[in-house]
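We emphasize that the prediction below concerns an isolated chain of 323 residues; any contacts that depend on oligomerization or on bound cofactors are therefore not represented. The input was used exactly as deposited, without trimming of termini.
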Amino acid sequence: MLRRRTLLTTALAASAAIGLAACTDDGNGSGASDAGGASDAGGASDGGDALAALTVSGDLGAEPTVEFTAPLEITSAQAEIVTPGDGDTIADGDTVIWRSLYVDASTGETLQSWWQGAPAGGLQVASDQVGEAAFAFLTTVPVGSRFVMTGWQQDSSGQARSLVQVADIDRIVSPLRAEGEPGDPSGTYPAVTLADNGAPSIAGAPSGTPPTTTVREELIVGSGDTTRAGDYLTMQYTGWKWSDGSQFDSSWDRGAPFSFVQGQGLVIQGWDENLLDLPVGSQVMLVIPAAEAYGEDPEAANGLGGEALIFVVDILDAAHTNA
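Result of the prediction step, given as a token string:
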């Protein structure tokens, strides 16, 4: 609910595996969230006609090259491992980070590439998130592998585009909660307590009036790499209304971290501008006025318009661009 809009350049990088989770056999892509539309996928030994017609370089130290005669006809979503990695095999529920190249199958044009400065991407590997076919394939892939997929994805106009995706699996996100040294919050805002699994709760509604600009307080200071604009940021969060302290959203309740590309207007302003320059592993409280959340109109954003909001955010991973 925090996303504002979808852009092709970020939707491709951050989406589920293109051909397996987002598409139907007739090419009518249904969007990455529609896992039920997945078509049958081949494993590493079953490439399908489209995969047989292309060549993908296997050197993990260089940007992939994808060679085929355009237009490449894609009649079914297929996938195979190009270069096997030597890391752990992806398991049910893992959140993976990858570096991707996307090629338009109809023209041979590279649409975006991490190696040319596009964002990294990834997803949570769960059958209800990505579809049975993508799940079946991805749970055979070791970390460190390069794989190729053929399929479809919707662009920003809603049109299905036939694509070739090549991705290098960089890592599995772990742990799935903040870990670090205690921060030094001001005590101005409600105290935060953590459940055994790390899920936060706050001690009731705040008092007084909310701030006029977003306030960030560090609750846990991590020791990982520092977040920056353009990162594919993976996080856990819970949000509450300032007005009554009621919870309205939580990634913890959904059982899956949330990811987005930092600094591209895909989330509310209070997030985009205040999750920078934080070590991975940190936990912060963001107190966000309505103007930097969903605006002042009380009818907007399913009742969140006009509301100041409180978030507790755990920074789990920050995958950088190659800029």
